[in-house]
């Protein structure tokens, strides 16, 4: 089985203030369903209150990430699934719950990690 990364950038979540409770409830329900199905690996979101740091091999630290790369923010979920079709189905469930499209990628899991 492959691991799939399902994610979205923060800007994709355009939700009315009075809908946030429903988004949280619905997204947590999908994650609970994934756990019950035994396909949930982990998930969460980037803490956007803490700026990224670029750390070099000698330990030098520069504030900010790669200047040429897009900003990394938003939420992500990794699921272990038997097929891309099942990954698409789970991504659609998460998209419905989060009220925004989800990006789907095969996650290059390193079994030595």
Plain-language structure description:
The protein is an alpha+beta fold. The protein has one domain (2-107): Alpha-Beta Plaits (2-Layer Sandwich), CATH 3.30.70. The protein is 29% helix and 27% strand. The protein contains two helices and six strands. The strands form two sheets. Strands 2-5-1-6 form a four-stranded antiparallel β-sheet, with helices on one face. Strand 3 (53-55) and strand 4 form a beta hairpin. Helix 1 (20-37) packs antiparallel against helix 2 (84-98). The radius of gyration is 16 Å and the shape is globular.
Architecture (CATH level 2) name: 2-Layer Sandwich
Spatial sequence of strands, sheet with the most strands: 2-5-1-6
- In round numbers, the mean pLDDT is 95
| Major sheet attributes | 4 strands, antiparallel
Key features?
single chain, 113 residues, alpha+beta, Alpha-Beta Plaits, four-stranded antiparallel beta sheet, two-stranded antiparallel ribbon, 2 helices, 6 strands, 29% helix, Dimeric_a/b-barrel, Transcription initiation protein
């Amino acid at each position: 089985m492959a691991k799939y990364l399902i994610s979205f950038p923060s800007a994709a979540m355009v939700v009315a203030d009075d809908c946030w409770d429903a988004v949280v409830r619905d997204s947590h329900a999908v994650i609970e369903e994934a756990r019950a199905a035994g396909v949930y690996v982990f998930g969460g979101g980037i803490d956007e209150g803490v700026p990224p740091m670029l750390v070099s091999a000698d330990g030098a630290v520069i504030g900010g990430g790669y200047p040429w790369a897009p900003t990394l923010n938003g939420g992500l979920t990794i699921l272990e699934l038997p097929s891309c079709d099942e990954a698409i189905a789970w991504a659609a469930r998460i998209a419905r719950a989060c009220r925004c499209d989800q990006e789907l990628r095969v996650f290059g899991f390193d079994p030595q990690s």
